[in-house]
């Protein structure tokens, strides 16, 4: 399936980020915007078809998904291999041996990747790096150089960078080829000037949500699941999603309009769960909280984008919440709505009290009184 630019993404303005003032907001990725699971999987399936045509083989493969936005995309791509080991980069603290590298344009620059499992007995014929967008490929190069240095067994592996949008120029591509990396994408273009397009758009900061005394969210603790930040052999995520559907089938049967919400890097399990709900015949969307602050279009801001090449501004509502992972950290949620039933899934082991309180407040604003928090714990 071929996609146009307008079908896949819109351009937003980052809030208070001078390193890169714009953000590509994918409409089907189930991250910043609510997305139908079937559309997320269809987009990923189309990318996988491009991957096979480009020479990627169904061999023993290491798949690496880039945090934060591509952790689910990477897992969906890994699911196309008969035998894959899945690992994500992360901005969280992790145990064991790891590599640190920079994502220089990001709101949070520091990233790391665990290599404890890779340093043991794993041997891979291929490495597939997955991100939602490559602009210069600098972050990819930063990681690849350190990874090949620390895990020499990967030097002879074939290497591919798989992405929804490729904006790298010929010089960038040549730099990646020096590391043996070939890019595969759904869309490839360099004829853009997104900085200019968002320059005059007036935005505001996402609205801060106050903590409330009354918590409307019910919490359920389930067992531990494989940790993509440390890496695991793929398999079982479909069964996990099916078990979740079976566990909550009665509530799902009584709802017509359902949201499945992930938290920051924890996006793969939510999208698989949402797909099972959709298969069950229910209307469902999925997206996630994010650490990136996106500018919210000011009231009457639609008039300001008429003179630009932007056909629509994707973020007209946004909220600032307490992160599920650190009480001092802010996280953001965009395009909230009213639903009959909301599932919030997280892998945070210790959720700050303020996180549930601010989320409760937001859900109350939208009358989402039937909200269930599923916390996967040890």
Structure, explained:
With 378 residues, the protein is α/β, with parallel strands linked by helices. It contains ten helices and 20 strands. It has helices at 5-8, 37-53, 71-78, 138-150, 170-178, 194-198, 237-247, 249-253, 268-279, 353-365; strands spanning 9-13, 22-26, 61-65, 84-88, 98-102, 110-114, 126-134, 158-166, 181-188, 203-204, 207-208, 218-222, 232-233, 257-262, 283-288, 296-297, 318-322, 330-334, 341-346, 371-376.
List descriptors.
378 residues, alpha/beta, six-stranded mixed sheet, five-stranded parallel sheet, 10 helices, 20 strands, globular
Concise synopsis of the structure shown:
The chain has 378 residues and is α/β, with parallel strands linked by helices.
Mean pLDDT: 93
Which percent bin holds the helix content? 25-40%
SSE order, one letter for each helix or strand = HEEHEHEEEEHEHEHEEEEHHEHEEEEEHE
Characterize the biggest β-sheet.
Answer: 6 strands, mixed
Rg estimate, integer Å:
20 Å
Indicate the overall shape: globular
């Amino acid at each position: 399936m071929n996609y146009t630019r307008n079908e896949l993404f819109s351009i937003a303005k980052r809030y208070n980020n001078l390193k890169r003032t714009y953000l590509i907001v994918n409409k089907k990725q189930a991250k910043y915007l609510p997305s139908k699971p079937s559309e997320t999987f269809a987009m990923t399936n189309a990318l996988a078809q491009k991957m096979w045509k480009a020479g990627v083989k169904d061999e023993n493969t290491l798949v690496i998904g880039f945090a934060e936005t591509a952790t689910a995309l990477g897992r969906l791509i890994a699911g196309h291999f008969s035998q894959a080991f899945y690992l994500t980069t992360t901005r969280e603290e992790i145990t064991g041996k790891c590599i640190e590298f920079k994502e220089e344009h990001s709101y949070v620059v520091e990233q790391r990747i665990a290599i404890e499992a890779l340093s043991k007995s794993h041997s891979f014929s291929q490495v597939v790096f997955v991100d939602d967008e490559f602009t210069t490929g600098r972050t990819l190069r930063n990681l690849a150089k350190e990874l090949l240095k620390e895990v020499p067994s990967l030097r002879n592996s074939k290497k591919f960078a798989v992405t929804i949008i490729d904006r790298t120029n010929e010089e960038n591509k040549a730099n990646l080829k020096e590391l043996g990396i070939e890019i595969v994408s759904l869309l490839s273009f360099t004829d853009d000037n997104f900085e200019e397009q968002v320059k005059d758009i007036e935005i505001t900061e996402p609205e801060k949500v106050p903590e409330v005394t009354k918590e409307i969210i019910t919490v359920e603790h389930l067992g531990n699941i494989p940790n993509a930040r440390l890496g695991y052999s793929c398999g079982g995520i479909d069964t996990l999603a099916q078990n979740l559907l079976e566990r909550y089938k009665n509530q799902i049967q009584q709802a017509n309009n359902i949201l499945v919400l992930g938290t920051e890097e924890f996006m793969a399990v939510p999208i698989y769960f949402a797909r099972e709900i959709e298969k069950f015949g229910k209307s469902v969307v999925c997206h996630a909280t994010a650490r990136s602050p996106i500018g919210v279009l000011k009231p009457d801001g639609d008039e300001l984008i008429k003179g630009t090449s932007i056909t629509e501004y994707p973020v007209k509502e946004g909220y600032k919440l307490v992160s599920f992972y650190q009480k001092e950290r802010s996280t953001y949620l965009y395009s909230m709505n009213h639903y009959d039933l909301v599932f919030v899934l997280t892998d945070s082991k210790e959720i700050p009290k303020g996180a549930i309180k601010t989320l409760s407040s937001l859900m109350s604003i939208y009358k989402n009184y039937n909200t269930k928090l599923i916390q996967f714990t040890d």
